[in-house]
Amino acid sequence: TGMTQPSINWHLKENARDHYTSKFSLEELIVRRGQAFTITINGAGQPEQNLIFIAETGPKPSEQAKTQATFGISSTVSKESWSAVLKSTTSNSVSISIYSPANAVIGRYKLIVQNTSSGSSSTANLGTFVLLFNPWSSGDDVFLPNKAECEEYVLEEFGIIFAGNKHHINSFGWNFGQFQGDILNICLSMLDRSLSYYQDPATDVSHRNDPKYVGRVLSAMVNSNDDQGVVLGNWSGSYEGGKNPSSWTGSGEILQNWKKSGFKPVRYGQCWVFAAVLTTVLRCLGIPTRTITNFSSAHDADENLRVDEFYDASGNHLNRGADSIWNFHVWNESWFSRSDLGPSYSGWQVLDATPQEESGGIYRCGPASRNAIKEGDIDLDYDCPFVFAEVNADCLYWNYDTTNGKKTLMFSESTVVGQFISTKAVGRDDRVDVTNDYKYAEGSTKERDVFKKARKKLGLEDKFDPTAPTPKETDQKPDISGKFKVAGTLEVGKDLKLILVLANLTTDDKTVQVNMTACSTVYTRRPVHEIWKDSVSVTLAPQEEKQFPIQILYTEYQEQLTTDNTIQVTALCHVAGGIQVLVQRDIILDNPNIDIQVLGEAELNKEVDVEVIFTNPIDMEVTDCVLQVEGCGLLKGILEINVLPLKAGEKSRTKFQITPSERGLKYLLVNFSCDKFADIKAHEVINVID
């Protein structure tokens, strides 16, 4: 006999526990591939041996594309294909264990049951479930054997991102929030809004079993270039019409704003925003992912493994050419095997969603095997030359004569780029240095051999390089050396005190004309506003060292500073009869601190008071004070509080309530802004008890 509409029990709680998906809100079954889940069907008709299941996904499900599977009840599970095994029956219900293969397409599936007993056939739609990647299953491309790493790189909703520069590494918390609210649906709609989906939906969906493919598509979708993706980049230092990139504290608000606006790109992002959003999306889908910060990161636009920087006679850093060296750059690593390249290239893969260069006509980058980068195998898919240059490029500094366009090489360096490559430790808030996973020790023969191998693979070894120095130029050694030393504290609101140290390296008197400039920059070292300039003529006796104190007043730089709090100081030294010497330093000024205090025990579902304390450290009033607060499991969405203006030296205490909704260690993130200080960040770990 045919069946009436059967009812289904998805066993949401038990399945979620077995599949490490309990952190999602339980309105739909969310399971991982390569692992069985259990359902109970009431009223599907007898005998259960006649039941046939169909699981299908995408707009045109087909067996051939592996987006549809038809399977009956068998005595044992098949590892190769979808299968169902009977667990138990009662007079009108049947419990079944359904197994998906470890290479199944991920996404939202429809589950259909048919009963073909007694000659007539009837069909019922049981509803939908979502299938994700499974790092806990040894058959999955994303299998990660270490359970603690699975916890961190898939299940952890809080992260720490490193920034600053190589002299001064700082860090801030980020709320990935991959299990909150509607985020899973937004991640699935990102896949359905990609260019590959628009071009050929059925084929695109059939490739979603492959983490390489999914990672590459999403690295394009997180930036808005080409495809109306999630975040619009802006590195100008001026952020009208959107939010300043440094003001975000988590990915949730960005992804939700994208959806709410009808999928219009969210304004604005810079590299860590793109990387953090990609981390959220990939962790949500089950691909182990982390953020990586590279200090002194090269952006080599022309694939010659060299970055050229130009300075005019006054020492101004010119915005010429597409190459640049960023104070830091943040990208992602995701963990999966590379069947296309072979086992030695499996493991961490670099993905970069920041729109820097096109790859195959689209702004996306990766996956590039980290092992391939280390070994110089940069002909392997995808985008290895760009990533290799980010951590290895040589740097050439040129004097550019703006009157006639003549370029003179001042000096070149091969050890500056790619330092202190950093990521958050597993289970702790510490920094872990992974530089040695990207390259052999700077200056070692092995490191230069790898560099030569990479040049060869790019076809650069035999090419005459018109900008490369001829031997006679490089033989000339500079007559003097110089450096900037910091004297005093580097804080926003304080005067900047530096010392320029110049030393005569020769046994003759030297006359030096020193042209100094200071300008505010964004973290990419792109100059934004000139702050100060000065020039001085100096005579140095043989082997003499002289110190020149420099003071830049807060009142001089305050108006010009970008929210990156970065100032580039340059001294271009013209030595009579010798080659020019460039002395340069990127200074990062620290924001004042902000203090978070939880007043009392944090208990599940009970209100607790939190106080945020800020003291205005400067001798003028600060206005337009805004505090924003977020934290998974501690409060819904984002709390925004306007704080009254603060007179010089005044302390503000802002009190608010949170109601924790999850137990365990949770992170509260705060961001405080006012007219004189941008985006002061802090976070506090709160242990929520029952």
TrEMBL record:
Q: Which residue range or ranges hold the Transglutaminase-like domain?
A: 263-355
**First-level EC class:** transferase
Q: What is a GO molecular function of this protein?
A: protein-glutamine gamma-glutamyltransferase activity
Question: Which cofactors, if any, are listed as required?
Answer: Ca(2+)
Organism's domain of life? Answer: Eukaryota
Against InterPro entries, the record matches this protein to: Ig-like_fold (IPR013783), Ig_E-set (IPR014756), Papain-like_cys_pep_sf (IPR038765), Transglutaminase (IPR050779), Transglutaminase-like (IPR002931), Transglutaminase-like_sf (IPR036985), Transglutaminase_animal (IPR023608), Transglutaminase_AS (IPR013808)
Q: Please write the reaction equations for the catalytic activity of this protein.
A: L-glutaminyl-[protein] + L-lysyl-[protein] = [protein]-L-lysyl-N(6)-5-L-glutamyl-[protein] + NH4(+)
Gene3D superfamilies attached here?
Immunoglobulins (2.60.40.10), Transglutaminase-like (3.90.260.10)
Residues at the catalytic site: C271, H329, D352
Q: Which residues are listed for Ca(2+) binding in this entry?
A: N392, D394, E442, E447
Give the signal peptide range. Answer: none
Question: EC number(s) for this protein?
Answer: 2.3.2.13
Q: How the cofactor binds, per note? A: Binds 1 Ca(2+) ion per subunit.
Keyword annotations for this protein, in alphabetical order, are:
Acyltransferase, Calcium, Metal-binding, Transferase
What is a single Pfam family found in this protein's UniProt entry?
Answer: Transglut_C
Give the similarity note. Answer: Belongs to the transglutaminase superfamily. Transglutaminase family.
> By what name is this protein known?
protein-glutamine gamma-glutamyltransferase
Give the species: Nothoprocta pentlandii
This protein's gene is called Tgm3_0
